[in-house]
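#lab-general

N.A. 3:47 PM
ok so I finally got the sequence cleaned up, no stray characters, all 753 residues accounted for. can someone with queue access submit it? mine expired

B.Y. 3:52 PM
send it over

N.A. 3:53 PM
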Amino acid sequence: SRSKMLVQKMLVQTPLTPPGLGADVVMPSINEDTPTTTSFEARALELLRLGDNARALELLEGADKLNIRLVNMLFTALIGTGVGVDAAAVRAQQACAAHGIAPNASIFNNILAALDKAGPPEAVLAWLAKMRAAVPVTTTAANIALKAHLQRRDFGAAAELLRSMMKRAAGADYPPPPNEMSFNTVISALGDAAQPERAESVLSTMIDAGFTASPVTFTATIAAFAKQSRPADAARVLKRMLAARLQPDTWCFNAVLSAYANAADPEGARATLANFEARAAEECPNAAPDLVSYNTLMLACARGGRPAEAEAAFQKLLARGLVPNEVSYSTAISAHARAGNAAAAQGWLDKMTAAGIAPDAVAFNAACSAHARLGDAAAALRCVDAMRAAGVEPTASTHAILVNALVKAGQLDAASASLQALLVAGERLSAPTFNTLISAYGKAGRRPDAEAAFSAMLAANVRPSLVTYNALASVYALEGDIDAAEAAVHAASQRGFAPDRFTYAALFNACEALPARDRRRRAVPHVTALLSSRVELTERLRRSSARLLGDDSFAALLKSHRGSGGGGAATRAAQRPRASPSLRVEAPEFVPTGAEGAEGGGCSAGAAAEAGEDDGWTEVQTSRRGGRRGKAKPPPAAAASATIRKEKPPPPRTSTAPQPSAPSPVRLAGVPLTRSKSNRARLLELAQSVAAAEAGDAEGGSPASGDGQRGSMRSRSVSSNLADALTVPPAVPLTRSAASELAITLGDDMRLE
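B.Y. 4:20 PM
back already:
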């Protein structure tokens, strides 16, 4: 139904993967191998298209003679009737053997697509090996293999496959050349793995290699930053997309909106939506805000603790002629619940019912959470009773809310008894149900009960989250048991969780509870790990570190991390001046580009004319060196009242490398150097070192030493005179150079820690 589709779209608030990145089972084509199509084939295909897989299977199994198209239909019918993919693939192979048919790429693509949807990634890779032994591997199959590697978190294998696809030798059967979906698959997976900088680096590599990035590719990159609550970076990638003269669609703008919603920034979301509306009115009526857009604005207001503004967004939605759905009402309920207004939350639940929309579990849970926040366990229980009376089954979140309500009311024993009853009844539970109780026991000084709750969690086969281990570490920290706290953190790392600021806070609290003679010794490794991590150094962590190590020792350690270049986000955050709490970040203004260099200024694909030649090396900001995970400096604000302005860039450093005595073409292994569309620093540094070497030869000087050349390659600065010093020949895509850059981006250091 339309409502269900809209609910699925609203998942963009934990942003959606853009369309076109998945792989569906291939519907056989009746014109695949020969121009002749029999009425038998047409009948079988019609049954499949109607979803009548059982009759199609009966028809195909009764055929006297099959061809490759009919075998493909047989496989699809088997899958549709519930046969496992491996079993269906074996039967398809048996049919090929029985009728003297050689399997072609289409049957393997069909099998791989089905495995991609329902099978483990290991099965995909096993069938790819079978395909490679039988027929040439297609790009579609290689893209499915890329996805399988990424699902296994084997980023090294995925990077190697994509690199080899980019460097494919002419005439080689394997691997096939990449296409846009190859890069989209990797970008989307990096976004899911919380690696937005690397996702953007792959986008840049794609462009450098001569491939055309579409709005889908940019949207996947924007979504990667949105998932990490980094709206400034999401907006920056959108502006980069506009600079490339690509027209963003509704999905793209909604991804940017979701970044502001995830960051609980209603001002940024509102400014972004205003720009979105203006752009739709002036240039792109086919890319106008939709229901998801206004629901996302409501979510930003809800998370920002502004229920009145969420209601205003709801009214704006109605004024635009849109029909609110379950998500609209649930978000309004949640906005009041977060503000602790249980009566208003209940009122919106009643409005939802009056509008003819049956409340779902999300709506009931939001209303129930309003009572739980106030510690009104009785009202929360009444809400759950109403939920059951409406025919809606409580979810794992419902049980977590009820336990939290009892904890808020100070009824720990009742919360524990409720949890035990849920376990006995076999109810589906989630980690938050246990986390609330573990944390409450810790604050009450009941360590044995907290450990018992954790043991019950494991016995119920509920996977602990990082919050679970942080809660345990906090329990031990209150007792000054640093060994137990470290053991909890180690257990979290064994499950693949990287420490966050709450992890380090628990460790520091445990160290501060130690005798004075032991504090510094036990704290140094943890402070060092914090400065080397991607965790931002908050004011609380900064103060704790200084207390544990001493102001001078902490300052020296911080300085050593700056000097070595090994500092993580915490070190970078410590180097940034702290902003005044009164300052707020405005959404950037998205300047329309359709009127510049375009004929007609329409929104259709290809409406914008090709950009003219620039006058040298045009710099485009990228995140190659690792973006900040904290609040980044935004682009210029849309509103005239913006309180933060873009700083002027520092003057370029003067290069110390020798300059050529006369302009001369620069070639790498006989290939002319192209103007990198993203101005990749490493390509420029390589060009600079080659130019320096040529200049040295022309002047009769000795070439630079190997150490000197390697030092130049490692340098991060780019000479401002480089554009004037080099005469660049006609652009030829540096495919191999771009592939090498991908190796740097996704190579051996690609680990999720």
